[in-house]
Amino acid sequence: MKTIEKRFCGLAIAFGLLIFVNFARADYFTFWANKNFDRSVYSSDDGTNIEDSLNSIDVAKLPAYQQVYDCDYVNASGQRVIPSKRDLQDFTRLWLAGVNPLVKVLPTNSTITLSWTDYSGEPAIDLFAAIDPGIGYQTNEDMAAAQIDPVQCPYLGRISPTHTVQFTKDTWHTNQFIFCGCGYGYGGLTMTINDGNGQQLVQTKVWIQIVDIKQMYERWTVGDTPSRAPMNIAQPAVEGLGKLPDGSPAPATLFTPPQDSSTPYILFVHGWNMRVEDKDNFAETAFKRLYWQGYQGRFGEFRWPTGFGITGTASAIWNNQNFDNSESNAWASGIGLLNKLNDLNSLYPGHVYLMAHSMGNVVAGEALRLAGNNQVANTYVAMQGAISAHCYDPATASRWTIGVPDRYAHYWTNNSPCYFNGIVGAGAFVSFYNVNDYALNLWTTDQDYKPDVGYQYSSYLDQFLRNVGLGSVSLYFPTDTYEIFAFADDARSYALGAQADVNGAFKGAQIDLQTIWPIDTLGHRDYSSHFWHSAEFRSDYPQQVDFWRTILGVDGFKLKIY
After folding, report:
1. Cα 511 from Cα 434, distance rounded (Å)
2. Strands 92-95 and 48-53: what pairing?
3. C-alpha distances in Å from residue 37, one per residue of 33, 82, 470, 477
4. Which among 400, 397, 398, 352 has a CA at the least distance from the CA of 377?
């Protein structure tokens, strides 16, 4: 946590905190605009409401007056309020240092005004009273609940090029605030104290820049259309970046080469059943929650063409090919991810960190296998991995021992090593698992229905076959491995993300999610609700603070010592 501090009326700027003092324009504090939809949404699988980042389909179901960004949210009475505890991850702190004792001795009718000066664009922020001088509103459920209470922490106004927030001696109650970004631009957030005659007594400013969060991390894609094969070379994504003043599309966000060779870069790979906006929502949630843990390195998202449109368990059953088609794309996306990891490792040698969720671990695992003897990631964290545990350890529990050959455990002949045997593409492998994972329980059901319609296994030929018309075509390892794994070979093990004590690359490096999650109050209260399969990206940050602390800590990427 970097801190620059001088005394009033000088300035201090710290992680997640602005303290008014004068400082150079070059020291802009950059924060993202609160232009998303952190609301409560009903989960049909869990039968309850949860806080989440809504996509456009869910937003369209809201009352018309709520179909606005969080920075413009009002309640049914038209009062500007913070819509959820989750939305607090889009607020940072503002401390007007030294003002309290000054206000006590100000002349009658003096004013304290906050405004923008020397600005460019349309910078705007919304100001609320803070419940606490620290970041308890980010880490403590009770404080978060109090922070969104408009009685305890009222809205104080919007500061924009055309609006100011002004206090008098009588209306000044605190020098501790939180704010969210509402308009893009940069400039000096200026505090001016005048006496009752309008004579300026004090003026100081802090330089702030409000940007689209998509300008703060890189987005790479090998394709987002599930009916098209993934590309081998990831391209920068440009969706959602808007237009430049001349009307041309805004360019993709790309970092300049780091000046510090030890700069870390975390690359996130999403899972199954995600539209482009859902992929970005998960990536941006990870970015924000890493930020609030004090992470100051770089961050990127790797997108691949998963299927989407599944709205619950019943929908998944009726569209069962969605999952296996996506798995096929996941395997085929491994080469694209490897190429991107190679690129990143040339820029951040030894400091690339890979994290993948659910089916994204198929993409990540295959990329690290294809790396051969080259280490392209410092550490790989598998979160709720939707991939056979036998790929890494053939000795983990088997659900049964009859049927088609288990080529995950023995690739690709009987008694051969497992598929990921000897994998060294990352220097360390860590698995975050939950033995009661809802989605990974359904993963085993999907495996049970393999070979899919249109495929079969011939024990006589000892071959997997794809049916074509009235005949069939033989499938061979290694040429057809991805097709066989996705559509024909049923995994006999449990999923990596639901299995304890996996050896191989993950030996001694597994985190039982139930030990770092809050108490489960849903369903059977045993972490078996669907919510928990992606809990780290959902709900509010205070509930998941221990997860993200663990990701960065000694049991994860080892980037931060707590």
Report:
1. 9
2. unpaired
3. 12, 11, 51, 46
4. 352
Sign of the torsion formed by the C-alpha atoms of 14, 83, 286 and 227: negative
Report d(CA 294, CA 57) in Å as an integer: 33
> Is 434 exposed, middle or buried (CB count within 10 Å of its CB: 0-12, 13-18, 19+)?
buried
Query: Would you tell me how many other CB atoms lie within 10 Å of the CB of residue 396?
Result: 22
Which one, of 39, 532, 45, 41, lies nearest residue 310 by Cα? 45
B/e letters for 203-217, b = 16+ CB within 10 Å, e = fewer, are ebbbbbbbbbbbebb
Q: How far apart are CA 431 and CA 443, in angstroms?
A: 17
pTM of the predicted model, to two decimals? 0.95
**Mean pLDDT in order along the chain per 10 residues (562 residues):** 30 50 67 97 93 97 96 97 98 92 91 97 97 95 98 98 96 95 96 94 94 96 98 95 73 95 97 98 98 97 96 77 97 98 98 98 98 98 98 95 90 96 98 98 94 95 93 96 97 97 98 98 94 97 98 97 78
Cis peptide before 71 (omega within 30 of 0): no
Q: How far apart are CA 399 and CA 396, in angstroms?
A: 10
Domains of the chain and CATH, by start:
3-211 (no CATH), 214-450+493-552 (3.40.50), 451-488 (no CATH)
- What residues pair up with 317 in beta bridges, in sequence order? none
Q: What does R_g of the chain's alpha carbons equal in angstroms?
A: 26
CA 255 and chain centroid, separation: 19
CA gap 20, 276 in Å, rounded: 39
Whether residue 482 contacts residue 471, with contact meaning beta carbons closer than 8 Å, is answered with no
Q: Are strands 426-433 and 510-512 parallel, antiparallel or unpaired?
A: parallel
Burial class (CB in 10 A: 0-12, 13-18, 19+), 459: exposed
Largest CA distance in the chain: 98
**SS3 label, residue 278:** helix
* E-state strands within 320-475: 352-357, 377-383, 426-433, 455-458, 463-468, 471-475
Query: 213 is written with which tokens?
Result: 């969060």
CA distance 202 to 186: 22
Of 450, 464, 226, give the one whose Cα is nearest residue 322: 226
Q: Are strands 165-168 and 111-129 parallel, antiparallel or unpaired?
A: antiparallel
